Amino acid sequence: MNVKFYVRALLCLYLTYLFSILHLSAQTPQKDSPPDPVVALKVGDTLPPELWNLPLEVVNHPEGKKTITLNEYKDKLIILDFWATWCGTCIKGFPKINDLQTQWGDKIRILNVTYENQNIIDRFFSQGAGKSHPYILSVINNTWLKQYFPYFGLPHLVWIDPEGKVLNTTGANQLSSENIEAILGHNRPKMITKTDLDRKKPLFLSEQFGEDMELKSYSIFAKGVYPGLPHAHYLKKTAEGKLYGRQMTNLSMIEILHPIADELFQEKGDAFNSKRLKTAMDSTALKRFYPEGKDRYTYELIVPEHKADSLYHYMLADLNKYSDYSVTMEKIPTDCLILIRTSEEDKLQSKGGPPRSRFSKPVSILCNNSMKFMVALLNDIFPADPVIIDETGYTGKVDIEIKGTTNLAELRKELRRYDLGLVQVRRDLNTLVVRHKM
Fold first, then answer.
1. How much helix, strand and coil, in percent to the nearest 5, is found in the chain?
2. Those residues with Cβ within 8 angstroms of residue 355's Cβ, 6 or more apart along the chain or in another chain
3. Within 28-77, where are the H helices?
4. Which residues in the chain are classed under CATH 3.40.30.10?
5. How far apart are the first and last CA of the chain?
6. Which among 132, 302, 374, 395 could bridge 245 via Cys, Cβ 3.0 to 4.6 Å?
7. For residues 93 and 79, is the Cβ–Cβ distance under 8 A?
8. Cis peptide bond prior to 62, omega within 30° of 0
9. 210-228 residue pLDDT tens
10. C-alpha span between 406 and 106 (Å, rounded)
11. What pTM, to 2 d.p., does this model score?
């Protein structure tokens, strides 16, 4: 037979064999890789073998290792501390982590875990806030661990007891020597479980809500801290971007009222700030009203889309019905400073560029920003002085540089360079009045 025929036949057989090997390789999971899909672990579950042997990329290992497995810490109390470089609370907890790891030595391993990559983490630990914490052993580029231990808010701690069971999930405030001692002594620790909620869904609503049902409206108002939610706001919008609901979680009452007042004042063509708030309550109630107090609330309201324009009116009505406070918007005679232009010459127009604002000593700068934004900053800088109201009528972007904004006299002097003036008058101003229900 033809030699070329044999060569071609052998080549075809070889290519078929090579293709089958590559195909099988692609279909076979890598050694120690988790199953697909990963089944999230719950409190009480035992860690599966593939998780113990999963290679984890790390930084700051005391022995210089680049990869570890959880198996290296088997028979110890393992605490996984999920964090990120943007999480200030996470970073503040680093010294406590170091102290506890030093105190308990080989009996425990606190292992930080972040989804962020090598470049971000190297930069973090070499400069800025992270430079002071080179002792933090952390998993990086994490993808699998979050699938085993899903969370929505940081910091998030997963406690794995020496027997390899998920003991609990908590916030960082539950990390203490007392709780570690209790676990190692086979006693029950005093922990508050952190069960994270998906904020894209209505808070606390049963997952069994029927798929054939349409949620038209929903509201919840609760007092107290829920560990599985952040101290934050969250907006609910339609696919077209229309706002139809809002979540406010673990906030003080003033933090809940402020964005509501912002919207209601804007409807009247006005601007809300702390000077437009009057409180009528005793010192004890007043202290609990502000963020420094211990009172925290979680509130959410979802309305039908055709009522979205009234969302903030409904929110204020809810708070008046269910909270310990009565809130009204009233016209009150008030001393104020009116910001005006003193000439028609335009000394304000921005030269463009990225928007910037830095209002601090010794020089305050506003670049390519609105006059409305500047007035809001000035009201924050001078909280004890009369409220400043913009009546310049200037709608374009402005560039302003002010030196020595320490008192109103200096401010007036600097504003004159831009042909701006402050005129003191007394007017009936929209004011948010908050009274404590007795």
1. 35, 25, 40
2. 367, 368, 369, 397
3. 49-52
4. 49-184
5. 107
6. 302
7. no
8. no
9. 777 888 899 999 999 998 8
10. 55
11. 0.71
